[in-house]
């Protein structure tokens, strides 16, 4: 039994919507789970995993899904309104990332521990710097005349591509942090694997959303 083109398209749309809704649930659940494990406020260090998870698992995921035609919570709003919410969420993500970096930096300073001595530390630093640069680069979308010689369409394309790289870095940093002694001591066995699935599945869905959106726009432009 073969499906018609319309049936395949409808099935694909349903699967995309289910996957998108699943990511919403995953990023909220994962953030709450990390908050319970980290118990923010119990120590200076506790703010680091909490803020970083809030930044990359919640705010950044929602900022990217805001433009999804299938799973955006405000999909019926205008593109301009979506852009404003995207800016707000990205600003919150970058702010949390900077605060999380400051918390771990000062905590290591107080305990006389080396800074950025692990892969998690190095990738985490690169991720935060990339997030700041991505946010600053996004200013060109608000004021495209500042980027002379670049069309708005090209700026959006590069911004989306670099945003995907930043998200991949963020999820990689989260996975490396979940391999740390602190996390593996607090979370182990099956719970660790279930937790690790959250950023992995989120990354796969986000990659599909961004690439599918780009291919759709490219098809309409040709």
Strand content: under 5%
Helix percentage: over 70%
Uncertain stretches of 5 or more adjacent residues: none
Rg over CA atoms: 19 Å
Distance between the termini: 33 Å
**Biggest pleated sheet:** none
Number of strands: 0
Structural class: mainly alpha
The SSE order reads HHHHHHHH
Question: Number of helix segments?
Answer: 8
- What would the average pLDDT be, to the nearest integer? 88
What overall geometry do the principal axes of the alpha carbons give?
A: globular
What does this structure look like?
Its cofactor is heme b. InterPro entries: CYB561D1/2 (IPR045150), Cyt_b561/ferric_Rdtase_TM (IPR006593). It is found in: Membrane. Keywords: Electron transport, Heme, Iron, Membrane, Metal-binding, Transmembrane, Transmembrane helix, Transport. It is a multi-pass membrane protein. The chain has 222 residues and is mostly helical. The protein starts with a helix and ends with a helix. α2 runs antiparallel to α6. It is globular and about 55 Å long. It has 8 helices and no strands. The model has no long low-confidence stretch (mean pLDDT 88).
Keywords:
8 helices; 222 residues; mainly alpha; 78% helix
How would you summarize this macromolecular structure in one to three sentences?
With 222 residues, this protein is mainly alpha-helical.
Chain-wise SSE layout:
Layout: H1 5-38, H2 47-65, H3 79-110, H4 119-137, H5 139-142, H6 152-178, H7 181-186, H8 189-221
Helix pairs in contact: 1-2, 1-8, 2-3, 2-6, 2-8, 3-4, 4-6, 6-8
């Amino acid at each position: 039994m073969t499906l018609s083109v319309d049936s395949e398209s409808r099935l694909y749309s349903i699967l995309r919507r289910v996957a998108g809704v699943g990511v919403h649930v995953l990023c909220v659940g994962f953030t709450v789970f990390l908050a319970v494990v980290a118990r923010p406020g119990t120590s200076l260090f506790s703010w680091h995993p909490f803020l970083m998870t809030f930044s990359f698992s919640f705010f950044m995921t929602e900022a990217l899904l805001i433009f999804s035609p299938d799973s955006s919570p405000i999909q019926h709003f205008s593109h301009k309104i979506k852009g404003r919410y995207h800016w707000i969420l990205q600003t919150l993500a970058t702010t949390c990332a900077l605060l999380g970096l400051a918390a771990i930096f000062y905590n290591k300073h107080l305990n006389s521990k080396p800074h950025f001595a692990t892969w998690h530390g190095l990738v985490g630093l690169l991720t935060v710097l990339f997030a700041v640069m991505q946010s600053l680069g996004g200013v060109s979308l608000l004021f495209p005349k500042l980027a002379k010689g670049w069309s708005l369409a090209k700026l959006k394309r590069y911004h989306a591509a670099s945003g995907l790289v930043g998200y991949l870095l963020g999820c990689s940093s989260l996975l490396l942090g979940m391999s740390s002694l602190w996390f593996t001591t607090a979370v182990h066995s099956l719970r660790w694997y279930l937790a690790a699935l959250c950023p992995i599945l989120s990354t796969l869905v986000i990659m599909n959303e961004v690439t599918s959106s780009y291919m759709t726009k490219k098809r309409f432009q040709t």
